[in-house]
Design brief:
The structure is a single chain. The protein is α+β, with helices and mostly antiparallel strands. The protein has 2 domains: 50 residues; 217 residues, Exo-inulinase, domain 1 (Jelly Rolls, Sandwich), CATH 2.60.120.560. It has 4 helices and 13 strands. Strands 1, 3, 4, 6, 9, 10, 11 and 13 form an 8-stranded antiparallel beta sheet that branches. The protein is globular.
Length: 275
């Protein structure tokens, strides 16, 4: 009986060990399957979020619309003209200004472009990359009037720049002419632009005078229009000196892309109204 009990005990132990091993194997297999499925889902979500000139399900739910579809110039035209400037082209799903090497709007058929609709409170997203030594900008709340030759005379500018090569990066004060800065007024902090030739993600949020610039996932500028501090900071910038007829920023206006004579590419331009 004693020998038989020992045998039975050994059998039960062996059975228990096999059962535990089976459970561990099953759990490991389930975990690996879940990890694999999670990785696949993450990859799909990442691919969807990264697809140029498309809206994610979340953006659709939030009410974003595309201002550029990657295939046509629908909705865009030149500043002070109904035509679309020939120096701009659609290049592999981007809006591309072909550099003239002749400075601001120096090309014979160049010039700034704007989206033919005015906005007041909004959230704008876009991606951009700049050529080596390149310079450009995104304008918002801009006005279109024969009194001004350029939209920058009426609009805040989200600066676009090759910080490593363009001399503007060393001018101004405290880096306020570097990428994502409110040009010549408020510097982008931290300065996190990618090098020339690489894509950057950017956002501009405007709501009842509060403005935020975001670059590559970080808020880098925040300021407040129409306040005493705003008036003081504008007065300390170059704008009143360059434009004797300086007018304060309007409550609604156009979004524009600058031709500064350099190659710059834009894509995934999307906006939602916040009125």
């Amino acid at each position: 009986m004693k020998i038989q009990s020992i045998k039975n005990l050994g059998y039960f132990r062996l059975t228990f060990v096999i059962l535990i091993a089976s459970l561990l194997t099953a759990c490991s297999s389930d975990t690996e399957t879940q990890q694999s499925e999670s990785m696949e889902e993450a990859e799909m979500e990442s691919a969807e979020a990264a697809a140029p000139n498309t809206l994610t399900p979340e953006e659709e739910e939030q009410g974003f619309t595309l201002l550029f579809d990657g295939e046509t110039t629908n909705g865009w035209r030149g500043y002070l003209t109904e035509n679309f400037p020939g120096a701009w082209e659609i290049d592999d799903g981007t809006l591309h200004i072909q550099g003239s090497g002749r400075g601001e709007a120096g090309a014979e058929d160049g010039g700034d472009i704007l989206y033919d609709e005015v906005f007041s409170n909004f959230h704008l997203k876009f991606e951009w990359r700049v050529s080596e030594g390149g310079n450009s900008g995104v304008f918002y709340l801009g006005q279109e009037t024969d009194e001004f030759d350029y939209i920058w005379m009426t609009a805040p500018e989200f600066q676009i720049l090759d910080n490593e090569r363009h001399p503007d990066a060393m001018l101004g004060e405290n880096g306020n002419r570097q990428s994502a800065s409110l040009y010549d007024i408020y510097p982008a902090e931290p300065q996190n632009a990618n090098p020339a030739g690489e894509w950057n993600t950017s956002e501009i949020i405007v709501y009842d005078g509060t403005v935020v610039h975001r670059q590559n996932g970080e808020a880098v500028v925040e300021y407040h229009l129409w306040t005493p501090k705003w008036e003081e900071d504008v007065a300390d910038s170059k704008f009143p000196e360059l434009n004797e007829n300086w007018v304060d920023v309007a409550e609604e206006g156009y979004i524009g892309l600058q031709d500064h004579g350099d190659d710059v590419w834009f894509r995934s331009i999307k906006l939602r109204r916040m009125d």
